[in-house]
Design a protein that fits this description.
Distance between the termini: 42 Å
Largest sheet: none
Radius of gyration: 20 Å
Strand content: under 5%
Number of domains: 1
Order of helices and strands: HHHH
Structural class: mainly alpha
Number of helices: 4
Shape: extended
Length: 92
């Protein structure tokens, strides 16, 4: 396997043919993993109208796709910090 002097970008990694990727340090997932796996559904979102400073929206939009999801993640982190605990994900 070829070693790289620096970590590859996501684009560089995506462009590699499968046979050039070293999977040797990734353990295979056995039957036990799948028997114990639980489906975790995302929480339902509520559509709202929200007034946000233009500079804030432009900052998040500059990150391209998923800017609303990133904005939600920032708000979620704030709420969790205010509550003094980390958010617990539950299986449904």
């Amino acid at each position: 396997m070829k070693r790289y002097k620096k970590p590859l970008t996501a684009k560089e990694l995506a462009d590699l043919p499968d046979e050039a990727i070293d999977y040797s340090d990734i353990p295979e997932l056995g039957e036990e993993f799948w028997q114990n796996a639980q489906l975790v559904m995302p929480e339902a979102k509520e559509r709202i109208t929200l007034r946000v400073d233009r500079e804030v929206v432009e900052y998040f939009r500059a990150g391209r796709h998923g800017y609303q999801t990133r904005m939600n993640a920032v708000l979620r982190a704030y709420v969790d910090a205010q509550r003094g605990k980390k958010r617990q994900r539950t299986a449904r």
